[in-house]
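name: query_chain
kind: protein
chains: 1
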Amino acid sequence: MKEFLSLIRFPNLILIILCQALVQACLLSRQINWSRLLDVGFMVLTLSTVFVAAAGYIINDYYDVKIDAINKPERLVIGKSIRRRPAMGWHFLLSTLGVLMGFYLSLPVGLINLGAVLLLWGYSAQLKRMVLIGNIAIALLGASMLLIVAVYADKLNKITIGYAVFAFIISLIREIVKDMEDVKGDASFDCRTLPIVAGLANTKLVLYPIIAIFMAFILLVVFHPTTSVYFEVYMLLLAFVPGIWFLVKLVRADRKRDFTYLSNLGKFLMLTGILSMLLVN
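structure:
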């Protein structure tokens, strides 16, 4: 069980549940309404999203067994604790359940889940080995995780779209940093990620304007006339300031452990951004 939970990235799945719960309770009504979490349709939606995400982690590890043996040998599960064929069986089962549950809820949700399954398969098999394409694909999936809640409720609004943009940008930054972290193993198997094609120095030059856009977006949100003082202080202290620190550390980063630190800092920024939904209203 421990190995299986590691395979499906259980902490990341908890983060998905938290994210969708906050969208449902905080962004889709004028006031925070926790009772919305008891809606059966929402529970099915979240479970379907978790199934699709878990299947995506499995298929990614399935294709990356040899690469992970170099980049992250301590996290290797498929081929070590869980055999390849059972792993693919779990991938197929979870993907199928996620898509069927999505279509049970509505046609748009089903199509989004189906698209996510296909994109995750394409990412694992080929897209992640292409310059920026794989990074953008994962960033889009991160944004869709938020949007699908509003799509199901038929309450897509500017605030939800704003958080989706936030998720897209920080996910894109983090995915590029993770490629910088894994450059050794990726290069051994002819992957064409940005750090391998352009080098670490030039990859930083690509990241700087993306980070600048991220920081500008935070300031735009903070100084919007409708935001509260509590929200403004929170975002400045727990998003803008850490973003500046991220930039400082990126300039100095040149070793694997530096990029591991930046990847974890990116996850922290994602978490603080999600929790800021509690202060939106």
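note: The domain at 2-279 is CATH 1.10.600 (Farnesyl Diphosphate Synthase).
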